[in-house]
Specification:
Blueprint: E1 46-48, E2 53-54, H1 57-67, H2 71-74, H3 91-107, E3 112-123, E4 132-144, E5 151-162, E6 167-178
Antiparallel strand pairs: 1-4, 2-4, 3-6, 4-5, 5-6
């Protein structure tokens, strides 16, 4: 996406462009009733974010300055002798930016009740200024909760990719999704 595309939101403080989400994390054009339930997702289903995120030098340094001030993230150690031969984004920055896109692609489109954990978080290659990442989410496992019939467990693999399609960051979310026809906790 380009900055002049009318469907792209204004840059965030970190210089990233993402789909506007409402207060509960769903894309603005969807309501809770529109979200997919446990029964409506299947193992093998793949969800792709409609947007991408482009990392700028300023966004990399800003994030790192606040959360991960390693020299190779804040610009103090960016010569050829540095571990990455130049400035690179914090892995946490790439994870957070891709998680936002995963929310657009999947978590905000399903009746997501929360996560039980994150497994297998891996960084495959550094993210540099100018890199643009996309995200896809694949359902890899699902089963009904034995302790609460109102929810099902759905595990998904999230992949952040370069514009060439190469994986940058991957992880598995162990999630919970409301079952169809189930009364949500707190409803009467």
């Amino acid at each position: 996406m380009t900055d002049h595309d009318p469907d792209v939101s204004a840059p965030t403080a970190a210089g990233e462009h993402v789909t506007p989400l409402d207060s509960d994390g769903a894309p603005d054009n969807e309501t809770a009733a529109d979200r997919l339930t446990y029964e409506e997702v299947a193992v093998g289903d793949r969800f792709v974010a409609d947007r991408t995120v482009t990392f700028t030098r300023d966004s990399i340094v800003d994030f790192a300055g606040r959360y991960d001030p390693q020299p190779f993230h804040i610009g103090d150690d960016t010569d050829a002798a540095s571990p990455f031969e130049g400035l690179v984004a914090s892995g946490l920055h790439s994870f957070c930016a891709c998680n936002r896109l995963a929310t657009e692609a999947f978590f905000g489109r399903v009746a997501f009740l929360g996560g039980r954990g994150v497994d297998d978080l891996r960084w495959h290659r550094p993210v540099r200024p100018g890199d643009t990442l996309s995200v896809d989410v694949e359902v890899v496992d699902k089963r009904v909760s034995e302790s609460d019939s109102r929810r099902g467990y759905v595990d998904v693999d999230v992949t952040g990719r370069t514009s060439a399609g190469d994986p940058v960051v991957t992880w598995r979310v162990l999630g919970m999704i409301r079952r169809g026809g189930a009364v949500s906790p707190g409803e009467t």
